[in-house]
Write a structure and sequence with these properties.
The complex is a heterodimer of chains A (115) and B (111). Chain A has strands at 4-7, 10-13, 19-25, 31-37, 43-49, 56-57, 68-72, 75-80, 89-96, 104-106, 110-114. Chain A is mainly beta and 115 residues long. In chain A, strands 2, 4, 5, 6, 9, 10 and 11 form a seven-stranded mixed sheet that branches. Chain A has a four-stranded antiparallel sheet with strand order 1-3-8-7, with no helix packed on it. Helices cover 0% and strands 51% of the residues of chain B. Chain B has no helices and twelve strands. Chain B has strands at residues 3-6, 11-14, 19-21, 23-26, 32-38, 44-50, 56-59, 62-65, 75-77, 86-93, 99-101, 105-110. In chain B, strands 2, 5, 6, 10, 11 and 12 form a six-stranded mixed sheet that branches. In chain B, a hairpin with a 2-residue loop joins strand 7 and strand 8. The radius of gyration of chain B is 13 Å and the shape is globular. The termini of chain B are far apart. The chains are: A mainly beta (115), B mainly beta (111). At the A-B interface, strand 4, strand 5, strand 9 and strand 10 of A face strand 5, strand 6 and strand 11 of B.
Amino acid sequence: SAVISQKPSRDICQRGTSLTIQCQVDSQVTMMFWYRQQPGQSLTLIATANQGSEATYESGFVIDKFPISRPNLTFSTLTVSNMSPEDSSIYLCSVETASGTYEQYFGPGTRLTVT
Amino acid sequence: GDSVTQMEGPVTLSEEAFLTINCTYTATGYPSLFWYVQYPGEGLQLLLKATKADDKGSNKGFEATYRKETTSFHLEKGSVQVSDSAVYFCALSDSWGKLQFGAGTQVVVTP
């Protein structure tokens, strides 16, 4: 497994503003992902963060709303832009530590509340 | 597309009872299957996995067998404890490594 940290752990933001969430891993990993967990719901994949190239977004998620950076093999950021109350969720990053195993390990999550 | 269906909760049990959480999937190809657990106030943890038909994943007294013929991956534990109270998620991974989660099943174990 890997040690994964996220910052901030929680935040309360006003609508119309943006928040950048950081994900740091203690070892180099090939695959990094960002998920959203809306209150009382399951996890939904937002995008795959690709090192050195643009992220790959899932249906229903767009780069303008959720820009992602992945400057190296241990770090990624997710920005939630122009927030509305519907963006209130837990945002989680995950990594696949051993290529081809498909085992993903999750960060502790960032609890975002938009007022 | 791929999907995972798991039984709705909450499931309420007494300590030492037998737990089963049903999970079925729809997928093209041969996905890997997982159970994740989310304890109250904690992050999501990988509980067990199986990568091919008839594989059995096990961890912490929990077991699940990859049944290709019934497209199922039911989670079982013979004797639950209060500390097993959590939300359990069944998931599958496609060939790109992307996880598709079920809705989650809350399990409440009472003393």
